[in-house]
From TrEMBL:
GO terms for molecular function: iron ion binding; oxidoreductase activity. The keyword Nucleotidyltransferase does not apply. Residues 90-205 form the Fatty acid hydroxylase domain. Keywords: Membrane, Transmembrane, Transmembrane helix. GO terms for cellular component: membrane. This is Fatty acid hydroxylase domain-containing protein. It comes from the Eukaryota.
């Protein structure tokens, strides 16, 4: 069992990698995290139950109807992942931008933006409509178009979930993709709608981000030195 002093030492060390200083405390995060996790587990549980009921009645689970069941050739896996990645980059940008339309935002996307300094589990904290059109459908289009195997699709969803959790985690850890871009989106609302930044560059929705301190820190750190030490704030306005 770690002592209180050891716990504080670890917390202080983690603080060096924290993006925003107004992040909620552990005590504030705990009930929220428990609530969202329970809702998600219940949904997953009922999806498995539906599949089991279908199997029990002698039907193939419905998910098997749209995906190949024959094992894919190894070379097809990266090809399927690349197509899935390209389609999600385009679809997520435009669906996310649509969710920021004033008429839609206040009814739907506002829920996700309750968190101006997000934490990992906020990646799946959204209005059900948003979860469907912006979180679940865009990653599904690529695998369906390619007729990907269900295992390739699961691999893709795992990578996508891993990536979105990192981009919401609130910490810029070494050897992991940079979360600066999406964290900046939660802070400023009208910047960085996309993933990878391609469509934001194309439509000029990253101009403020590109002139910020966060942009200088927007890279995968390959040393244990915190990026905030490499590129320190010059004024209190910098995050
Ligand atoms: Zn977000
Ligand atoms: Zn947004």
């Amino acid at each position: 069992m770690p002592t209180v002093a050891e716990y504080h030492r670890v917390a202080d060390a983690l603080d060096l990698f924290r993006l925003q200083s107004n992040m909620p405390t552990l005590r504030e995060k705990k009930p929220f995290t428990r609530r969202v996790t329970l809702v998600y587990l219940r949904r997953t549980h009922s999806a498995f139950n539906t599949q089991n009921r279908q199997r029990h009645r002698g039907h193939e689970p419905s998910i098997g109807c749209i995906f190949r069941l024959r094992t894919p050739l190894f070379v097809r896996v990266p090809y399927g992942e690349a197509i899935a990645c390209e389609t999600v980059v385009a679809l997520f940008y435009y669906s996310h931008r649509l969710l920021h339309h004033p008429r839609i935002y206040k009814h739907v996307h506002k829920v996700h933006h309750e968190w101006t300094a997000p934490i990992g589990i906020v990646s799946i904290y959204a209005h059900p409509f948003e979860h469907l059109v912006s979180n679940l459908l865009p990653p599904l289009v690529g695998p369906v178009l390619c007729g990907s195997h269900i295992a390739t699709t699961w691999l893709w969803y795992t990578l996508a979930l891993f990536s979105t959790t990192i981009s919401h985690c609130g910490y810029h850890f070494p050897f992991l993709p940079s979360p600066e871009s999406h964290d900046f989106h939660h802070l400023k609302f009208t910047q960085n709608y996309g993933v990878l930044g391609v469509f934001d560059r194309l439509h000029g929705t990253d101009n403020l981000f590109r002139s910020s301190k966060a942009y200088e820190r927007h890279f995968m750190a390959l040393s244990l030195v915190p990026v905030k030490e490499m590129y320190p704030n010059e004024s209190k306005k910098d995050t």
